[in-house]
Amino acid sequence: MGHPFKHFILITKHRHKVIRNAFHCGIFFHSLGHDLSKYGPTEFWTSAKYYVGNMSPIVNERRNNDFFSTVCQHHAKHNKHHWEYWCDWAKGNVIIMTMPWKYATEYVCDMLSASYTYDKKDFKPETALNYFNTYVGYFHMTNATIEYIRWCLTRYRDMGWKGLKKKDTKAKYAEITSRNKRVEYILLEGAGELSF
Q1: Please, is 41 exposed, middle or buried when counting C-beta atoms within 10 Å of its C-beta (0-12, 13-18, 19+)?
Q2: 3-state secondary structure of 2
Q3: Among residues 46, 56, 18, which one has the least CA distance to residue 34?
Q4: CB proximity list for 47: less than 8 A, separation 6 or greater
Q5: What dihedral do alpha carbons 150, 98, 74, 30 form, nearest 10°?
Q6: Chain segment 24-35, per-residue pLDDT in tens
């Protein structure tokens, strides 16, 4: 059956909240392109079909499609604020690049918006941080990306938006990336060696 109108309202509320969040973080103009692929036919109609209102329709699509999500495949590769965009594969291994500052910061704004949009009644300053800490082990992110996002979400929990000013986040990002590798590898058992 689906709910295209409800889905449109939800993704628009979420997008506007991300843009407001991004204003606080100093990436307002960058954020104007946030999640525009959700309005295109590839993502919109499937997402509307699996709309539930209190979680991403990707979860519902996976439940009904042998765990494969066509929406996630399209969305992650068209939106650089998703960690999946920064993953590559070579000879069966996973190669991960650290997300650039503006995309990692947009990811933080996205997480805060999603936490609020999907459960406004129970949203607290620590909601996004708790979610990130619970699920980060399933994400393919470099140590630098993880550390920066966790730092931002912790600052938000402790200080609100005043803890995520552009000057502070850029300085922390530079400090974190200076002592971590830009690219990391997940070498999978039975995969080929990383050499060409």
Answers
A1: exposed
A2: coil
A3: 18
A4: 7, 11, 38, 57, 58, 61, 71
A5: 80
A6: 999 999 999 999
